[in-house]
Amino acid sequence: MLRNLVSPAITRPLTRSKLTARAFSTSFVQRQAASTNDSGYTHILTETRDKVGLITLNRPKALNALCSDLFHEVNDALDKYDADDNIGAIVITGSQKAFAAGADIKEMKDFKYVDTYKKNFLGHWAHMVDISKPIIAAVNGYALGGGCELAMMCDIIYAGEKAVFGQPEIKLGIIPGAGGTQRLVKAVGKSKAMEMVLTGSFNLNAQEALQSGLVSKVLPAENLVDEAVKTGNAIASMSQPSVRMAKELINKSFEVSLSSGLRWERILFQSLFGTADQIEGMGAFAEKRAAKFTHK
């Protein structure tokens, strides 16, 4: 959450490098809009790049604050990509300045407990983790509060060199509500997660996020989305039954015991010997040629 907590940073005079960054960010959004003006969405842009579905959060004036309408649009786009046999992976990104600077405080500031409980507020955010295809977060700029939680719901996180991750909800008299107290611990460890959540001030820059294991790669901002799409297409070229099983098992490792996880890994491993892709993959290896998977 908390786009209001970062607003002072965007009032400083722009240096030449910042002007260049702004030009890149503007042209990036314009390119996205030009190719997706028929998507029918208000708060996001969608685009297909080969076998990858690309979702761009598009509330630049609000630093991509995550209002309910935006998240409903994200969920709808995710469902469509998940059902599309021509798509093998999904990338979610924002602008160069902000992946998402938090949930929309204006939307929630007047809520009462009964409102949040009866409406299961933020419950619809969890839909993302039910998507069967791998999701890559390409994070430039601020990923604070709900923005950090959104990134952690994805399967892989790539960060731009100036990305910033944090959970400052405590400064608003609340706590993270979409995974910040749970997924963050598993990503960076208890002590660092405690410091980030309890102080609301300890943020991770891109290199710190890489060192802590929160992200898997740090890239120049101008290359970030292209590299994420490249990885997505590499994943999409693999046997999709194997990809989906691997994703499910890795995510389940955080929820089940080691013995249970190993048992299910072995069962699903064995089941893949009933697929055409296993025959093709091992045959291609033996014949020293590239495999041509049919996802069957």
Automatic annotation (TrEMBL):
Top enzyme class of this protein?
Answer: lyase
Can you cite an annotated GO cellular component? mitochondrion
Q: Which CDD domains match?
A: crotonase-like
Biological process (GO) annotations? fatty acid beta-oxidation
One Pfam family from the record: ECH_1
Question: Is Lipid metabolism one of the keywords UniProt gives this record?
Answer: yes
GO molecular function of the protein, one example? Answer: enoyl-CoA hydratase activity
SUPFAM superfamilies reported in the protein's UniProt record? ClpP/crotonase (SSF52096)
Looking up InterPro entries in the UniProt record yields:
ClpP/crotonase-like_dom_sf, Enoyl-CoA_hyd/isom_CS, Enoyl-CoA_hydra/iso, Enoyl-CoA_hydra_C
Which keywords fit this entry according to its UniProt record?
Fatty acid metabolism, Lipid metabolism, Lyase
Q: What is its EC number?
A: 4.2.1.17
Q: Where is the signal peptide?
A: none
The family assignment reads: Belongs to the enoyl-CoA hydratase/isomerase family.
Q: What is this protein called?
A: Probable enoyl-CoA hydratase, mitochondrial
The source organism is Rhizopus microsporus ATCC 52813
